[in-house]
Write a structure and sequence with these properties.
It is built from 7 helices and 7 strands; from the N terminus they run βαβααβαβαβαββα. The chain is an alpha/beta fold. It has one domain (about 1-180): Flavodoxin domain (Rossmann fold, 3-Layer(aba) Sandwich), CATH 3.40.50.360. Strands 2-1-3-4-5 form a 5-stranded parallel β-sheet, sandwiched between helices. A two-stranded antiparallel ribbon has the order 6-7. Helix 3 (about 55-65) crosses helix 4. GO terms for molecular function: FMN binding; oxidoreductase activity.
């Protein structure tokens, strides 16, 4: 089995990138590919742009990554209570190629921020909308106060209860691997 994992942001030092990399490292029974949205930078989506360009190769490549995976982990950065422009733009392009973007893939959705809400607004939006785009959300988790709860040097969560919740969330993808091999 293969899982793709990415932070839904283009910020190179994103705390969501650190979180998704840690979450991916907890998978023990699957191959994981970490994707960087910076490698899929596209023109700002619009109908006029789509008519002019058609479907860009990078959007096709991204949707192919989803198609060729058996599961997905996404950690959402929150900008003004919503998705980052980088994520929303690639998502919009991909949805024009394949309206059911997530293609029935099992998903673990995460979010974090420096604040006590832990990007819970964007995570709620993602959890609620993913099934409409054929995502099968197996677990979701918001990590509040990232800098208080994550050890950046050790690249892991500091607090046992939060770490256990993250391990439990990610375990849903390991369980799929068990079922897949039977």
């Amino acid at each position: 089995m293969k899982v793709i994992a990415f932070a839904a942001t283009n910020h190179s030092k994103s705390i969501n990138k650190q979180l998704v990399e840690y979450a991916a490292s907890l998978l023990t029974k699957v191959e994981v590919e970490i994707i960087d949205l910076n490698h899929y930078e596209l023109p700002l989506y619009g109908q006029d742009k789509e008519e002019e360009l058609g479907h860009p190769k990078l959007a096709k490549a991204f949707i192919e990554k989803i198609a060729n995976s058996d599961g997905i982990i996404i950690s959402f950065a929150e900008h003004n209570g919503s998705y980052t422009v980088a994520y929303k733009n690639i998502f919009d392009w991909c949805s024009r190629i394949e309206p059911k973007v997530y293609q029935k893939k099992p998903m673990v959705l995460l979010a974090t921020s420096s604040g006590s809400a832990g990007a819970s607004s964007v995570l709620t939006t993602a959890v609620q909308s993913s099934p409409y785009f054929d995502g099968e959300v197996k677990a979701s988790l918001s990590i509040p106060s990232f800098f208080d709860n994550f050890d950046s040097k050790k690249q892991k969560l500091k607090h046992g209860e939060l770490d256990e919740k993250l391990r439990d969330a990610v375990s849903h993808l390991n369980l799929l691997s068990d079922n897949h091999s039977k």
